[in-house]
């Protein structure tokens, strides 16, 4: 057989975004792959250098458009460290809650898209239906379904509306029932298992060498989860288990994500209970107007009230739905960050593509890449 | 079981005169400033001290010089460590970290195209996020997005 390169993307249904997987094949066998990125590069790190600290939050929603809250959380944690600001406790709880809701929403989105890649249409519809309930919750306290712009340096924009926690608990109860159905649909399906078992294997050692994190790493048996290992916000105060599998294949990643959603529900119930019992401020006090004042329009005069903050660098890392995300914010005084550097988990997980694709067949690419949970918005930034 | 914190590693003994300073950095076990010429030795020593996971490699343009930062994670110590080194602006070049941490590959490609830092010995130093043949390095301070006065008029005039 003669070898050849084929392009899967940038408009292939497998890609879930704009990127190009160049594959060298011999017949059906994959000999080599070379991901081509950059189709969705918007220069977020560069634009951040020209924006006020709170304005960067707007970009964070667009960085990963299915996990906006997680990215807002990440950036705000880094910016607060760089500016030496401490948020009130209630704001930290609300952020944790937002991130966990976002994790469930992101994993459901992954489930819907991944199972559709395998040719099963109905789980896609169920997934989108259930994700909509979470988007309704987001809408009820941020006003937006996707681009929230909710978190601020020093806290969050506004408190939760009346009756929010009851609505949220109803959604969680509903979701726990639906997760059982998801499992029956997939793990109970012989076709699904034959399509996924033993595919895309990436051993624990390879994961660590190639920087792969998140559900891919945990499916290989490594229980690394920054929420547990290096608790940020209030993760140190809630009970949950780190989901893990041992097969390191597509099925393992599926199981890890399903268990993570259940653990997120567990975290959310504890956080909602705390929020019910502990009213309080959600913004730090004595912030300059360009940083604080949650309801103040970002007007021209707001920017003129400069306050020099002591210089500093802030580093934050969170367990984003796709893996370990990190940010490095350099504050040189003044209103703009001097440099913002992001670490996108998807970017690194994709860079190891050669390791988990070579040796399989072309028809295996959609399930394997589906199990990676590619979000090109965050990998290209 | 919790292993000893990373600050208990005797970095001066381990790295000798490759080490310039160990600075504190909030939420991490510190920032290690090292001599760029000894990069390979430092990478190997840090890796062997338990920091097997490379989180990010980033370049910062300080106009008169460039800085490269490496963030590492140790599963045993459950903590991050920063490495940082300064490179001259006229010839910013450092040894690649891909031999020690294969995951540095794409990070270094990005740092090269964005901040114009050359990584000696990198296996595949070509454009990643920018199109082939792109001549600029967008994250240099000299690369301007727009003039501030344009911004005043077009965007911020509420």
Summarize the SSE layout with pairings:
The complex is a heterodimer of chains A (381) and B (158).
Chain A: E1 3-8, E2 20-26, E3 29-36, H1 44-48, H2 56-63, H3 68-83, H4 89-117, H5 122-142, E4 151-152, E5 155-156, H6 164-186, H7 190-196, H8 204-209, H9 215-218, H10 226-229, H11 250-277, H12 300-304, E6 312-320, E7 323-331, E8 339-343, H13 345-351, H14 353-357, H15 365-372, H16 376-380
Chain B: H1 11-15, E1 19-23, E2 31-34, H2 39-48, E3 53-61, E4 65-74, E5 79-88, E6 93-95, H3 104-115, E7 118-120, H4 148-156
User: What structural class do helix, strand and pairing data of chain A support?
Assistant: alpha+beta
Number of helices of chain A: 16
Order of helices and strands of chain B: HEEHEEEEHEH
Question: Quick one: CATH superfamily of chain B?
Answer: NADH:ubiquinone oxidoreductase Nqo5 subunit
Overall domain count of chain B: 1
- Looking at how many chains there are and whether they match, the oligomeric state comes to heterodimer
Q: Summarize the main sheet of chain A.
A: 3 strands, antiparallel
Number of helices of chain B: 4
**CATH fold-level label of chain B:** Beta Polymerase, domain 2
Roughly what fraction of the amino acids of chain A lie in strands? Answer: 5-15%
Which parts of chain A are unreliable, with pLDDT below 50 for 5 consecutive residues or more?
292-306
Largest sheet of chain B: 5 strands, mixed
Record field, number of beta strands of chain B: 7
| Helix share, percent of chain B | 10-25%
Low-confidence spans of chain B:
none
Distance between the termini of chain B: 57 Å
Number of discrete domains of chain A:
1
Q: Indicate the radius of gyration of chain B in whole angstroms.
A: 18 Å
CATH architectural designation of chain A: Orthogonal Bundle
Question: Could you tell me how far the N terminus lies from the C terminus of chain A, measured between alpha carbons in angstroms?
Answer: 39 Å
Strand-pairing-aware structural class of chain B: alpha/beta
